[in-house]
Structures are given as C-alpha cells and as structure tokens.
C-alpha cells in the first residue's frame, strides 16, 4: 500500500477519517479503562473493551456505507475487500469441517475472534484515505502520545503507592503496573513500538524533548512486568552496538540517568526487581526454561493439539483452520500458531499478504529491517499483535511515520 508523503490540501473524506480516528482512539481507551474498573470493583459486566470495539465497528460500517463510491474507486480498498471475503469464507468452511462438535454453537462463540482477526484489514479499508496524508497521521499520533503519557503517570503512581487498580496482574505474585490499559500484551507492544519510534527519531536528530520521552518510556516499560519487554532490551542493545555504535553517547546518557533514578529510589526498585526475578525463577524451576520463557504457552499448545486438534479436525481444517478460542481454552497465546489454528494456511497467507502490502518501508535502511523483525518475531512467542485491534491501531499510525523518516520531503519533527 503506497503511502504518499507530499503535503497538500486535505479532502473532506480525509477530514472525516481524521475525526473518526480520534473517536476510535478515545473509545478504545475508555473501553480499556472501564474493563479495569469492572475487574477492580467486581462489576458483573466486564467486556467493555469488546463493547468499545463493537461500537467502533458499527461506526466503521456506517462510514464506509455513506462513502462507498469513494472507497470502491480505490484499488487498494477493492483488494482488501477481496481478502476479507477470503478470510470469512475460510472461517465458515473451517467451522463446518469440524468433527464431533456442536458446529453452530462453536461458530457463534468464536465469531468475536473472527472480528478481531479482521480488524486490521477493516481499519486499513476505512482509514485508507488518511494513509495518503502524513500530516494528519502525525496529528493523530500526538493524540495517542498524550493518552499514553497520561497513562505512564498512572503507572508511576501505581508503582510508588502500590495502588492495585493500576496493577498489570490481579493474580499470583507477579509484579507490574500498566495504568488503565487492560491487557499486558497490548501495553507491552505499545511500549516496544514507542521505544523504537523515539529511538529512531533520536538517531535521525538529537532533541532534548525526544530524549526525555525515550527515557521516561523506557523506565515506565520496566515497571509493566512482562517478559516481552525484558527480552526486548537486550535485543535492541545488541542492534545498537552492531549498527549504531558511532552513537554510543546515547547509551551513556540513558545509562547515566537510569543510574541516578536507581540511586534515588534504590529500595523501591530493588524490592520490585527482586520480586519479579523470584517469580520468574519459580516458574523456571517448576516448568523449565522454555516453558517459563513463554509463560507456559508451549503447554497450552500441546494441550490444544492433544485435546482439540486431533479429536475434532478433519483434513480441510488443516487448510482453512477451525479454532475454538472461547474462554481462551484452546488458544496457545502465540500469534502465528493461533492464526493457523483459527484460519489455517489460508489465513496465514492472506494476513501475511495484508501486512506485507502495508509495510512499504525502505529495507535498505537496516533500522526498518530491525523494526519489522522485532515486532513480528516477538509475536511468534506471544500474542496481542495479529488479533488485538488496539495494537493494530498504533501500528497503522507508526509505520507511515517511520517510512517518512526516509523522505526528505517531510519534516521529521513529531
């Protein structure tokens, strides 16, 4: 999907797209916040994130219907509509090919997950006019940035006061704080994507504000308590030492500031990391290295194969999938494996094609290779990328901005 980066006058459809995107960002965050409140106060209804996404989906459908002529004139939209049809057909075919199971009941209870997998191509269709204007995308990113930085304040507040509403985990001894974002996988990707973005911005042009944002985001990310983030930092450090070693002063700066923070809050920080390491060590001793690394996802994978795939799949399910994700019972928690379970080889091919067409980056730039590698390699061992609409919404914004870094026509200041 080619993103046009030149500045020009906005069309009415782009303006409408812009305000629809603002509404989507706000509704997603409200849904997350209410889900957090619901669990904290033990409300009977907890599916506020699902509700917010249903509202957005209805708005998307109405918006598309009112502007259908403009959309159908765009070749990218027509291709994406064809992909949607293929994915839907694959889902129904896979469900009806299942054996020894109530097909209608299974189909209805898994329809929510179908919508989650379709969300990225849907937002690519609905916001296709917006992708043609980098300036509007930058404005939308600023809104997301404001919400995210506000949430970071809540994370710090939770860390220093141990306020349980802002904890990442409500169960067990695992430590971590994620503010009002409701899912650990979701906020982990937020932090990783934003760290990569600020890091890239800093490499392009040093600005004190960007450096400050990067530092604050790095410190806050360590308080979330997810292994995904802890694994990410050694990888980006290795990248920097091999490919950006001429700019070691940034590492020295961040390291010096981190040491200052550590000295100021020594007891609190040491206590937090001691508890975090002890929990990881406990799972390592009990389950082994690989199982503890993937949070027992390998065990879930084996359970799914033994108790669902083998008893209920026919030959056609290996092509079209046929997942049963209700109550997250037969779901491994690893994005690409779950995509295969749900939509089969067809789903793997179509979803990969959609992302490939969208990520139109200049791969002569080694950072762009690293960006794509780190985002998708993490999803092999965890979830929250392929079927998490909130993460895809940020991904939709950040890819065109990163692509603009390679264009001399665009002001790089965001």
UniProtKB/TrEMBL annotation:
<feature type="transmembrane region" description="Helical">
    <location>
        <begin position="248"/>
        <end position="266"/>
    </location>
</feature>
<feature type="transmembrane region" description="Helical">
    <location>
        <begin position="143"/>
        <end position="166"/>
    </location>
</feature>
<protein>
    <recommendedName>
        <fullName>Oligosaccharide repeat unit polymerase</fullName>
    </recommendedName>
</protein>
<feature type="transmembrane region" description="Helical">
    <location>
        <begin position="50"/>
        <end position="68"/>
    </location>
</feature>
<keyword id="KW-1133">Transmembrane helix</keyword>
<feature type="transmembrane region" description="Helical">
    <location>
        <begin position="80"/>
        <end position="101"/>
    </location>
</feature>
<feature type="transmembrane region" description="Helical">
    <location>
        <begin position="368"/>
        <end position="387"/>
    </location>
</feature>
<feature type="transmembrane region" description="Helical">
    <location>
        <begin position="214"/>
        <end position="242"/>
    </location>
</feature>
<feature type="transmembrane region" description="Helical">
    <location>
        <begin position="336"/>
        <end position="356"/>
    </location>
</feature>
<keyword id="KW-0812">Transmembrane</keyword>
<keyword id="KW-0472">Membrane</keyword>
<feature type="transmembrane region" description="Helical">
    <location>
        <begin position="186"/>
        <end position="202"/>
    </location>
</feature>
<feature type="transmembrane region" description="Helical">
    <location>
        <begin position="113"/>
        <end position="131"/>
    </location>
</feature>
<feature type="transmembrane region" description="Helical">
    <location>
        <begin position="20"/>
        <end position="38"/>
    </location>
</feature>
């Amino acid at each position: 999907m080619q993103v046009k980066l030149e500045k020009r006058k906005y069309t009415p459809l782009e303006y409408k797209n812009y305000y629809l995107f603002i509404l989507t960002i706000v509704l997603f965050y409200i849904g997350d916040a209410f889900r957090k409140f619901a669990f904290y106060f033990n409300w009977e209804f907890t599916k506020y994130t699902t509700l917010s996404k249903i509202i957005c989906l209805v708005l998307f459908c109405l918006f598309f219907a009112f502007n259908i002529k403009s959309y159908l004139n765009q070749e990218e939209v027509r291709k994406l509509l064809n992909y949607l049809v293929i994915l839907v057909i694959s889902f129904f075919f896979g469900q009806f090919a299942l054996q020894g199971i109530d097909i209608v009941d299974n189909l209805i209870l898994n329809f929510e997950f179908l919508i989650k997998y379709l969300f990225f191509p849907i937002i690519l269709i609905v916001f296709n006019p917006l992708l043609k204007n980098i300036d509007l995308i930058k404005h939308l990113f600023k809104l997301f940035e404001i919400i995210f930085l506000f949430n970071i304040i809540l994370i710090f507040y939770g860390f220093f006061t141990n306020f349980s509403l802002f904890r990442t985990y409500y169960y067990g001894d695992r430590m971590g704080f994620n503010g009002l974002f409701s899912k650990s996988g979701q906020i982990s990707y937020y932090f990783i994507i934003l760290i990569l973005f600020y890091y890239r911005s800093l490499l392009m042009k040093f600005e004190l504000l960007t450096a400050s944002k990067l530092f604050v985001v790095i410190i806050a990310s360590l308080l979330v308590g997810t292994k995904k983030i802890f694994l990410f930092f050694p990888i980006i450090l290795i990248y920097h030492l091999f490919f950006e070693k001429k700019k070691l002063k940034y590492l020295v700066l961040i390291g010096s500031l981190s040491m200052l923070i550590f000295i100021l809050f020594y007891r609190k920080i040491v206590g937090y990391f001691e508890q975090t390491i002890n929990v990881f060590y406990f799972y390592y001793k009990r389950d082994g290295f690989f199982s503890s690394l993937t949070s027992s996802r390998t065990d879930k994978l084996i359970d799914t194969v033994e108790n669902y795939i083998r008893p209920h799949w026919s030959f056609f399910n290996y092509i079209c999938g046929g997942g049963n994700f209700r109550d997250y019972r037969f779901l491994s928690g690893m994005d690409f494996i779950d995509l295969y379970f749900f939509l089969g080889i067809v789903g793997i091919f179509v979803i990969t094609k959609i992302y490939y067409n969208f990520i139109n980056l200049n791969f002569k730039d080694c950072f762009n290779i690293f960006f794509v590698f780190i985002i998708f390699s993490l999803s092999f061992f965890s979830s929250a990328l392929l079927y998490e609409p909130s993460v895809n919404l940020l991904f939709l914004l950040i890819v065109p901005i990163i692509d603009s870094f390679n264009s001399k026509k665009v002001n790089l200041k965001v």
